[in-house]
Amino acid sequence: MALGNKLDIDEKQVRRLADLLNENGLTEIEIEDGERRVKLSRQNGTVSHTGFAAPPVLASEPAVVVAVEGTSPAAAEPEGIADAVTSPMVGTVYIAPEPGSPPFVKVGDQVRGGQTLVIIEAMKVMNNLPSPRAGTVKEVLVRDGQPVEYGEALVVVA
Amino acid sequence: MALGNKLDIDEKQVRRLADLLNENGLTEIEIEDGERRVKLSRQNGTVSHTGFAAPPVLASEPAVVVAVEGTSPAAAEPEGIADAVTSPMVGTVYIAPEPGSPPFVKVGDQVRGGQTLVIIEAMKVMNNLPSPRAGTVKEVLVRDGQPVEYGEALVVVA
Amino acid sequence: MFEKILIANRGEIALRIHRACHEMGIKTVAVHSTADAEAMHVRLADESVCIGPPPSRDSYLSIPAIISAATITGADAIHPGVGFLSENATFASMVEEHGITFIGPKPQHIALMGDKVAARGAARELGLPVVPGSDGAVSSEKEALALSANIGFPLLIKAAAGGGGRGMKIAADEAALPEAFRMARNEARAAFDNDQVYMERYLGQPRHIEVQILADGHGNIVHLGERDCSLQRRHQKVLEEAPSPALNDTQCDEIGRTAVEAMKKLGYRSVGTIEFLYEEGEFFFIEMNTRLQVEHPVTEMITGVDLVREQIRAAAGSTLSVAQEDIAYMGHAMECRINAEHWRTFVPSPGRVKAYHAPGGVGVRVDSGLYAGYSVPPHYDSLVAKLVVHGLTREDCIMRLRRTLEEYVIDGIETTIPLHQRLAVTPAFMNGHYNIHWLEKFLAGLEG
Amino acid sequence: MFEKILIANRGEIALRIHRACHEMGIKTVAVHSTADAEAMHVRLADESVCIGPPPSRDSYLSIPAIISAATITGADAIHPGVGFLSENATFASMVEEHGITFIGPKPQHIALMGDKVAARGAARELGLPVVPGSDGAVSSEKEALALSANIGFPLLIKAAAGGGGRGMKIAADEAALPEAFRMARNEARAAFDNDQVYMERYLGQPRHIEVQILADGHGNIVHLGERDCSLQRRHQKVLEEAPSPALNDTQCDEIGRTAVEAMKKLGYRSVGTIEFLYEEGEFFFIEMNTRLQVEHPVTEMITGVDLVREQIRAAAGSTLSVAQEDIAYMGHAMECRINAEHWRTFVPSPGRVKAYHAPGGVGVRVDSGLYAGYSVPPHYDSLVAKLVVHGLTREDCIMRLRRTLEEYVIDGIETTIPLHQRLAVTPAFMNGHYNIHWLEKFLAGLEG
Questions:
Q1: Which among B51, B97, D275, D381 is least buried, having the fewest CB atoms inside 10 angstroms?
Q2: Which residues of A touch B14 (CB under 8 A)?
Q3: How confident is the model at residue A1 (pLDDT cuts 50, 70, 90)?
Q4: Closest residue of A to C408, CA-based?
Q5: D132-201 domain in CATH 3.90.1150.10?
Q6: Which residues of B touch C71 (CB under 8 A)?
Q7: Model-wide pTM > 0.90
């Protein structure tokens, strides 16, 4: 192949070949056409992950959305959404000090570090959630009165 | 054939070849046609697996060697050993017409197509196994009186 | 007892037999076609022998291959499983002629029950109830009326030369008989140029109920109650249960006793199943299966008796380990046959199983050779798993069935699990109100 | 009955409870730490709530987190499982104060039995046999001899101030008592500058035998026989069985009746287990566990009673579904605790399970949250699966145990399956000749 020419790779084509490799459990596909040659191969051990790592597909769908949320990245990794302030506890979130009051913060607000973002009620105790940093409120991810899990993203401050 | 610089892949053709590979338990298909060459292969032991498909590791080891042989490529694919003449039935193989006689064939012999290579006894009937082709005996893979499975490689004639 | 048993079968039943053998300390030989080299029972067996290419006729139905495999491995008995050679009297005889024990009934009983006409005659002689009929052509209305008293109503008048429903009439009662008789004869004459007709009892909505028999070679014969296998599609059983929701204990005892008496007269040995149609309190012999039955686990679940173990013991000359008075029924059991088929279209779905996870917990039994990475071959029966659940009551059993069907993961191939999930929440099934025609109607009415 | 139960636990026991709930038509809420988001019971539950980071103190032991989770999901009851908060009286009280039912005993009984000194006193008052002793210092040989008649031999003389075996002597019989007494006092004086000693019966080779109790809140209390849990390593049970190979039916009935009488006096509710040391025909109270026990399945296997179901029913105010006379024991059951540990070194082995295949077939129950692709987190108990098998006899049960241990595939992590495989072929185990010290000696003698 001419060194001066840019290597012309048809990504779709390679992808299709890779699918073929996977679907048929092959270890290698090699295609030569004149000057051009394509070879796909896989080592034995690495292939093993494609299927195994995937959690089993359950015979029945989860019945309720919360169950799906429970296994979402947000729950598994509190740091899932960049710059989001996450809930340090399970409870009910309130975005205003009282029903009818204006919210603690709204999108566009400048907040100081330590300023209350929301309140989380747990065991009938109201817990202020302070902003961990100064910044601008980019997004409020929860509704007033919504139940939240540990680690759930609440407010984006950046 | 070649369309500009792009590699011309007939996906259907590859798929058909992959199916052929699968159906026949082959480890490799290579087709050359002038400038064009297509090669599909699979690793030997894991023929039918993409890896995650690796058979489970049993909690206990198989107790007897025959069990391992039963799942060997030789049993699974009669064509496993190139140029080997395989057993068309389950039975006991005899390499000589009678105890004490010289063997039907030995390594280095030239054989005609149709010439008896071994006898296989099944259900107390002696079955001559004729060579499917003329050639040289490269290897005799069985011992006199050995039990053989269907598809087991017996004599290499090339 | 045997040292080594060759299992002349494949799939879940081969695994079932392997398990019974190992639990008895008996070594196993798996025989398999090239398509089954990676099968679970082959992997678990102490020895395995490849006996031929994928087509059954050249492997699992090849008598020489199987007997040769037994000879070269030194097996002292062959278990035929279900299907394949399990009801082949010639095979049974040849096995015995080679000095190997056939784990099953005497060859003459296999032959007798394999001939469906002879079997019906034998059943009548043995005192098993058969569908009452005219036993030949009925030539006049008067004769028809006279015979009807013994046959009972509703009654079917069929053209002797008939087929396809032509020349076939149902008489609901005695008053309707003369006209039905005339019409059937006229239709028969028009259709077949032969107005001979015969009569038999018409069963409109029967259930399929079968009785499990267990017999040693020493005259000890017991029954283990009934199974209700009315949920069928194209004469294939889909879900079986025991006890039948339609029978009471007395009926169960009576038909069981009748079956045992018949088997004693016959001198039967090994496991066997006598199949009946049941309608409104009456049983009518269909056929006898002289082998283990796919649905045997439901009986094992409610009786605690290991049928394969008993079958092997009987073949080895041991006496039964249970007498009739020892057999107590506890709770309720159901078996779902899980096939590698699309659950609505029933198109077979062989191929690679990507993920496999069987349900666990209390009251659950799974008989399956599936595992993650296994490839279901396209050459054989589509049954790939039997999910069997037990509960103290039928309702508990259904709830457990639902719970386990939620948990069962078979990914990569289509299976009939979604069908069983729908069945398990359908009122007619939940109430036990079904007959042999019900499932086909249910399927026809399903959406999606 | 409850509409929705929150399961305040993880692993196989959470899955066990989920299964019981679904079989009763009750919805489930799984709570989990971030480490358990992919756990099987979380995947199967109707709802799930993440309650905290991996450390148990911030998740599974966090009372506010769990009660908040119950509140936001509207659960009407909480099942505490085993371990974690299951024997925390404060938690039980707080749950009830929040208007949620605690599925377990009354908080005061949890508190009573949680205090081991108080529990021993209570046991004595309730008529449970305790290790006989001097109940205080013994000041003279004469007093020692007088007391010894009630205590029995062999008899242990221990320094009141003692520890580490010093000032501790065993008297095999009355003749040996005076000298042993003098030596113990002398040693005590030399070692602790305090010659006060007390005496109690010496148990050299006891078995650990426990009685399963089931009680509703209406005065109905039954026992479900005993379990033998003598196979222990570092006070952790490894393999449990029922019935005990050391007891006969009469002994089982007697200790069961004694336990039921005690629980009636106490007014106990829910499931519970009374643990005893057993030696030469005598039982001695160790402690009572006021919760479900890990090894409860062996009792379920031989009685057919679903303990979790009964526990939930009792918490909901229902009466027991069985009376003492309904409880019959059928066959024999064993449970192997399969831990994610190397079978010889017992080094924990968390990590990804590459392949998983549970054994199936007749008489097998697997309680496990494992699946292929699941990652065993390093933060919790190493118990990952319980393999429970049933057989008509103890011998059948052992043979089935061996068969299932051959079939069980857990690849990617180390497990204790190889240990159980070796146990299952060891004569002392096969004969039932073991006590609480036997397993440690067996392990010390193992090669490899």
A1: B97
A2: 17, 20, 29, 31
A3: very low
A4: A59
A5: no
A6: 92, 123
A7: no
Chains with at least 3 CB pairs less than 8 angstroms from chain B? A, C, D
Using an 8 Å CB-CB cutoff, list chain B residues near A24. 15, 18-19, 21-22
What is the CATH topology of the domain spanning D4-82?
A: Rossmann fold (3.40.50)
D-chain residues near C44 (CB < 8 A): 406-407
Model confidence at C12: pLDDT above 90: yes
Residue of D nearest to C369 (CA): D360
D291 is catalytic: yes
Interface test with B, best of C72, C73, C375 (most B CBs within 10 A): C72
Structure confidence by residue, pLDDT tens digits, A94-115: 999 988 899 999 999 999 999 9
pLDDT in tens, A57-92: 444 433 332 222 333 333 333 344 778 999 999 999
pLDDT at residue D167, as a whole number:
74
Average pLDDT, chain D: 95
Tell me the ipTM for this assembly.
0.77
> pLDDT of D399-447, one tens digit each?
999 999 999 999 999 999 999 999 999 999 999 999 999 999 999 998 6
Query: Could you report the per-residue pLDDT of C95-111, keeping only the tens digit for each?
Result: 999 999 999 999 999 99
Q: What is the mean pLDDT of residues D34-52?
A: 97
Which residue has tokens 């000032």?
D167
Was domain D207-444 assigned CATH 3.30.470.20?
A: yes
Average pLDDT of every residue of chain B: 69
Q: Is C430 on the interface with D (CB under 8 A)?
A: no
Using the beta-carbon criterion (under 8 Å), do B56 and D405 form an inter-chain contact? no
Per-residue confidence band for A34, with pLDDT thresholds at 50, 70 and 90 = low
Domain ranges for chain C: 4-82, 132-201, 207-444
Q: From the CA of C403, how many Å to the nearest CA of chain D? A: 6
